[in-house]
Amino acid sequence: MARRDGFGCGFGRSGRGGRGAERYGDCPGGPGAGRREEGGGPYRSRRGMVLGVCRGLAEHFDFPVFWVRVFTVLAILFTGLWPGLALYFIAGLFLKLEPVLPVHSPDEREFYDAYASSRAGALARIRDKFERLERRIRRMEDVVTSRDYAWEERLRQRR
């Protein structure tokens, strides 16, 4: 699929092919690749000019970015700057930023949506997971440093 911003799938903004090109979307395996099939909502693009709203909407609706930007500028001019700019920045605040990696499963989608909507909740889940891991490590250390373990090691060494 040819990209609308002038960069082909084989080359990213740096002009080099390979893994860096996939980061810029539209290429198979890039961030925008799996989104349309899953029915996810619109996102702010990480590569947009101002907040990524126009590029995100263009990628979501599979429409040329140029025309979305032209329509946005015209809407801002015809509404008298204030309402159009306010709506644009409100959209920039409420649209989630697109995932860095492509989302492949419903579990990944659920995790990303939960993290994007509530970072505090996601951090609390990660903190709980690390606390559980820490408790497991402490139990393992207790077993390894116990006197019974030390006696077993001494008996193995004498044999």
Summarize the structure in short.
This protein has helices at residues 19-22, 35-38, 53-61, 65-78, 82-94, 106-117, 119-145, 147-158. It is mainly α and 159 residues long.
Word description of this protein:
With 159 residues, the chain is mostly helical. It is built from eight helices and no strands. The radius of gyration is 25 Å and the shape is rod-shaped. The termini are far apart.
CA-based gyration radius: 25 Å
Q: Taking all residues together, what is the mean pLDDT?
A: 76
User: What are the segments in which pLDDT stays under 50 over at least 5 consecutive residues?
Assistant: 1-38
Q: Could you tell me the number of beta strands?
A: 0
The secondary-structure element order is: HHHHHHHH
Counting helices, strands and paired strands, the structural category is: mainly alpha
Q: Separation of termini? A: 69 Å
**Largest sheet composition:** none
Strand content: under 5%
Q: Percent range for helical residues?
A: 55-70%
Number of helical regions: 8
Coarse shape: rod-shaped
| Oligomer class | single chain
Structural features:
159 residues, rod-shaped, disordered N terminus
Annotate the secondary structure layout.
Elements: H1 19-22, H2 35-38, H3 53-61, H4 65-78, H5 82-94, H6 106-117, H7 119-145, H8 147-158
Helix pairs in contact: 3-4, 4-5, 6-7
